[in-house]
Amino acid sequence: MFQTFDSMIDPSVGSARCAALRQDLVRRKLDGFLIPRGDAHQGEYVPPSDARLEWLTGFAGSAGIAVVLADEAAIFVDGRYTIQVREQVDTAVFTPMHLIETPPADWLEATLKPGARLGYDPMLHTISGARRFKAACVAAGAELVAVAENPVDAVWSDRPAPPLGPVAAHPEALAGEAASDKIARMGAKVGEARADAFVLTQPDSIAWLLNIRGSDVSHTPLPLSFAILPATGRPRLFIDGRKLSNSVRDHLSGLAEVEEPAGLVPALTEMGAAGATVMLDPDWAGDALATAVIEAGGSIKEGADPITRAKAVKSEAEVAGARAAHLRDGAAYARFLAWFDRAILEGPLDEIGVAEKLEAFRAETGVLKEISFDSISAAGPNAAICHYRVDRQSNQVIPPDSLFLIDSGAQYEDGTTDITRTLAVGSVSKEMKRHFTLVLKGHIAIATARFPRGTSGAQIDALARIDLWKAGLDFDHGTGHGVGSYLSVHEGPQRIAKTGHVALEAGMIVSNEPGYYKAGSHGIRIENLELVTGPGDIEGGERAMLGFEALTLAPIDRRLIDTQMLGPDEQAWVDRYHARVLAEIGPLVDAETKAWLEKATSPL
User: Fold this and answer.
1) What's the angle, vertex CA 138, arms to CA 135 and CA 143, rounded to 5?
2) Taking Cα atoms as reference points, which of 37, 115, 130 lies closest to residue 70?
């Protein structure tokens, strides 16, 4: 199994570990220290060796930061984790704070005493993040102090070793472009920005550029590494050589200079001394990297990682791979849904058992590389926690006459999948069907949207919400995120959200996942991955419009649809989508599953 359900969270550890950290801070003449959740790459997943926030506090969420001062400590999390943080952290030691309502920089400005010295690890804080903390310290009459050795690491006696996941070459037939061509194309972008080189800190950008994949973190095939991409010439890749087989090293050596990670900062110092202009993404690059260039005499040019947008627009080969991966995944998912409908009648099912069964069906494809994230397998009220993660302590039996939500995905070499379905268990209430249908209407509105070039996700996000808004309801997450090609299941810069201001382009993949969550009762989400298509002409129209093609192929539970709430066009969309599911998935499954599928996709 790729997913574990064991919970190692123990809130009681916070007191002793915080005390040990404070002792070390006294030794360093520091009055406090910042402990972010991220590592030096700022990715969604961090290896155990970099899970400093979780080790210190017990908090296991995907976003947050703690501040430890001499006489108080606080942990800042966003709205997704306000309940979770109180369950996982000793609140007598760490005061939970809302990351958005009370930003940590604002809290520090109000809390730090004049003359205080606040420490931070400059590799773990971005340039823009460190800038905010420096401003807060100046406003409080305090000082932000960079430390060479992280104090948390100094007191973490049983810290795991850094990961050494093997690196593999990603076939050019799946990538659709030779790494050498990508290097030349992206190097030209650096030159157009009037920089001598760009420092790549995001491992997925490096993986895409060099056509490699790795296994250093859970669920995402990343080789943790850094790279320097010059405007012209060969890149420099900084990666632990123990991850490279002889064949992979030979492959990479034909493309780039391969060096150990410890050589990154000296390389930047050398470039700074030569007067180079080095480009860094201030929202991703560690503050230490900018400091190395500037202190050596070079200059920094801030700008977005040029690979991020190029990677988001999939090549023809990547689009073909996505379609193939979703067909394969759709067949496994149909087998799962058919099994679920039978098994729920035969005896009690629990959240862990269902998640394990779905992973098993995917594993039976024979080509499953990983799951793309920890499955959200949520029964009844647990589904109202939109980022619920089941463990052996929280595991619940699926109750009768309820809704069950399963959000999951897979990593195949040719594509990454992500799907959510909400399923009826027994007889469900009219309210549940009403809420489900409102969510479905939002899903259909996105799926059928046509829009001109230059349209951003923020401009169409309201389509997913308008029927919920009319009912006085909403959901507190984005409608959709970008998805990589056998890379991160959460990929930017494109997204469908109030904050999604990047224009959608043909070839991008985004999720379409409106939802609704009634605390203590039920949660609903319907998610397909969509390929941005077009531009195409519309009969009688004057402009070619972009649109969406559903990549995900799985039935939407008809038992939860109140057809009286759907207009004729919406009903027709459901029937067309289901007819396509049957036509494309039906030939790929066994007779028993196909019989179930025929019923599940029958016209409304």
Assistant:
1) 110
2) 115
